[in-house]
Write a structure and sequence with these properties.
The complex is a heterodimer.
Chain A lengths: L3 E10 L2 E11 L4 E5 L6 H8 L7 E6 L2 E2 L13 E3 L12 H8 L8 H6 L2 H20 L15 H14 L4 E5 L7 H18 L2 E5 L3 H7 L2 E6 L2 E6 L1 H5 L2 H8 L2 H11 L1
Chain B lengths: L2 H27 L4 H26 L7 H19 L3 H27 L6 H19 L18 H19 L2 H11 L1 H6 L4 H27 L9 H14 L4 H17 L7 H15 L12 H11 L12 H17 L28 H7 L16 H6 L1
Classes of the chains: A alpha/beta, B mainly alpha.
């Protein structure tokens, strides 16, 4: 059974079919890329997966259980965590606190235990702290643990966001344009990091990305969306030469010429 | 339990006791005259309500313009309780205060259910309306004394009561904020979408913070009722809510100690300006404007006047060099050192690590703080990368870089 199964997923916004009959699967330990031109509905698919929107048709199943009707905040409980296209950190909190908030879905102690500082509070807080330090160490953020997140440079902010997502111990990590705003060297580093994260934390990764070097370099499988529909899927090499994908990205050359001819 | 934390808790408890001892002795011996005694009580009550409001506004980030309404609920409830229960002295007052707090919390839940499910400033509008509704209701009910209000409320509010309730409020809010529940509340203030993605039930935690905030206001209202002795519906109007909002902003949104400081300042200030009679409010407003121009984040911003802060201050005043260790507390530092050591062992840190953290006598500038990007990754890949990595050198802010 696949980790994530998406069946005939559709959503309409007032007559606009943003996503139409999208089908795909994600297996354990896979890195899958979701690509497509601007406005193709990629982020909408992410929003559907994380229950920010409820679909108007179709089903999403994680480990065989439908997630439809779940409130958005439950998404991380059931094993999916996302990052955002425009980095969303808790900017005036410390790096350490950002990661500690990531553990929220594993929290057990009650409000009473917190107010009275009962042993369960100390036990859990010590565990969060230790695990947060471990994560920060892996992502080389340990020496900025006390710095406010907004003071970090861009690359570290990206890493912190992934670090926070991993704190929630997801089965599937959803990355929305992780390479946005990065130069080629940084993108290269990011590719290494994504692979490292997959191997180290044994999870599946689905990512939206425009940077074709990154997509072709690390994705084991690609799904191409255009106008809310899947127009192609397969291995990166296949996608690269798929005429429908080329058309979606570049348009058909003949149209332009005939238009040009008309103009004359 | 954490030994370092325990020690700092004990130190704070000791501090609270010493302050109480000094103030109590001064009041008993008559050094502080009854007029100043009244002012001190009012500062205490205002500080309680301000800390409560700060929880909703500074920490949760929801604008609440009706805290006078919650105070009114608490004030009338506890006043009616002491007037009608026949229980003498504090035995009647304390259950009255608790009842007032609970009723204020219940009203807040009623107000919060529709407002807090939405994003945006709906709560501000709804609480604004709520404050007005409460004062209209108080005027129209017979049992609240109508427009005349309530008279002859026993003056039971005394210094020990106000002081220890204030301490309890501080402790409760502090314990809340330094827990996973409190971090959830702060996370909602910072970015509710990211908070939701991190598994935080945004509506539930907004509700928690708002209801606790109202309960504190209710208790404060009860203390006020038994301090002033008469209650009238006109007292708890819109302006009164704004007064508390001003105290929160003045002290610093999200700072408990800032709230105490501003409650003190803004209670004393109008008293000091009494001699200027008509110009009093003018001076007060001008002072507020000046503060907001030069220190828009409030007296303390989001900082707290903590032991660490005090230690740093003393060190700076006595001219001793500030060590970088001082910016960390000791526990933090030992964790950082341990982390560094382990990172070295595992080969994560190859070139420049955070080795001088707290060891040298000088605070490191951020530019020196260049982590060796991608080495952990490189390790796992079995190859090495140069230092021109994710962060080499550039301390540009994300916004600037993102815009390009």
């Amino acid at each position: 059974m696949a980790l994530l199964e998406v069946k005939n997923l559709s959503i309409e916004f007032g007559g606009l079919k943003a996503v139409q009959d999208v089908n795909f699967e994600v297996d354990n330990d896979e890195i899958v890329g979701l690509i497509g031109p601007n406005g193709a509905g990629k982020t909408t698919v992410f929003n559907l997966l994380t229950s920010v929107y409820q679909p108007t048709g179709g089903d999403i199943q994680l480990r065989g259980k439908s997630i439809l009707g779940n409130p958005s905040w439950r998404t991380s409980d059931i094993g999916m965590v996302r990052t955002f296209q425009n980095i969303r950190l808790f900017r005036s909190l410390s790096v350490l606190d950002n990661v500690r908030i990531g553990f929220h879905n594993q929290g057990n102690y009650s409000l009473t235990a917190a107010l009275l500082r009962l042993p369960s509070y100390w036990r859990e807080e010590a565990r969060y702290r230790e695990r947060a330090q471990e994560l920060l160490e892996i992502f080389q953020l340990a020496d900025v643990a006390q710095v406010q997140a907004r003071h970090l440079p861009y690359g570290q902010q990206r890493r912190l966001e992934i670090c926070r997502a991993l704190a929630a111990s997801p089965l599937l990590l959803l990355l929305d344009e992780p390479a946005a705003g990065m130069n080629p060297t940084e993108t290269h580093e990011l590719m290494d990091m994504i692979r490292f994260v997959r191997d180290r934390f044994e999870l599946a990764i689905m990512l939206i990305e425009h940077d074709m070097n990154l997509v072709m370099g690390i994705c084991e499988r690609l799904i191409v969306l255009d106008h809310g529909e899947v127009i192609a899927r397969g291995l990166p090499e296949e996608i690269r030469s798929n005429p429908r994908v080329i058309e979606a990205y570049l348009g058909t050359p003949f149209d332009d010429e005939s238009e040009a001819a008309d103009d004359e | 339990m954490d030994k370092v934390k325990l020690r700092s808790y004990l130190l704070n408890a000791l501090f609270a006791l010493v302050v109480y001892g000094i103030l109590h002795a001064l009041l008993k011996s008559g050094v502080i005259n009854p007029y100043y005694r009244g002012v001190i009580l009012l500062i205490g009550i205002n500080a309680i309500v301000t800390i409560g409001l700060n929880l909703a506004t500074g920490m949760l980030g929801e604008l609440c313009l009706g805290h006078a309404g919650f105070m009114a609920v608490g004030a009338y409830t506890s006043a009616l309780f002491t007037l009608n229960s026949g229980l003498p002295g504090l035995i009647g007052l304390i259950p009255g205060l608790i009842l007032g707090g609970l009723l204020a919390a219940a009203t807040a839940a009623l107000v919060g259910v529709p407002a807090l499910r939405l994003r945006g400033d709906y709560l501000a509008i709804i609480t604004l309306a709520f404050g007005e509704i409460i004062s209209v209701l108080l005027r129209s009910f017979a049992f609240t004394g109508g427009a005349r209000g309530l008279n002859g409320i026993p003056l039971l509010t005394n210094f020990p009561l106000v002081y220890w309730i204030l301490v309890l409020t501080i402790v409760a809010v502090y314990m809340l904020i330094r827990s996973r529940h409190g971090r959830a509340i702060l996370a909602i203030r910072e970015d509710d979408i990211a908070a939701e993605a991190s598994g935080i039930n945004v509506t539930r935690f907004k509700m928690t913070a708002f209801v606790i905030s109202a309960a504190i206001a209710g208790i404060g209202g009860g203390l006020y009722a038994h301090y002033i002795g008469i209650l009238s519906p006109n007292k708890f109007n819109y302006n009164y809510s704004i007064d508390y909002m001003v105290m929160v902003v003045f002290g610093g949104m999200g700072s408990i100690t800032g709230s105490i400081l501003s409650a003190g300042t803004l209670t004393i200030l109008p008293e000091l300006l009494r001699r200027f009679a008509d110009y009093r409010m003018l001076v007060y407003s001008v002072l507020l404007i000046i503060l907001m121009i030069f220190k828009p984040e409030g007296l303390l911003g989001q900082k707290e006047f903590s032991q660490r802060f005090a230690a740093n201050l003393i060190r700076r005043l006595t001219g001793r060099e500030e060590r970088s260790a001082a910016s960390y507390d000791r526990h933090e530092l030992s964790v950082a050192r341990e982390t560094t050591r382990r990172a070295r062992e595992r080969g994560y840190l190859t070139e420049q690590g955070p080795g001088d953290l707290g060891v040298g006598g000088r605070r490191r500038r951020p530019e020196e703080n260049i982590p060796v990007a991608g080495t952990a990754v490189a390790e796992s890949e079995g190859r090495t990368l140069t230092r021109q990595g994710l962060d080499a050198g550039s301390y540009e802010t994300a916004e600037r870089k993102g815009r390009r």
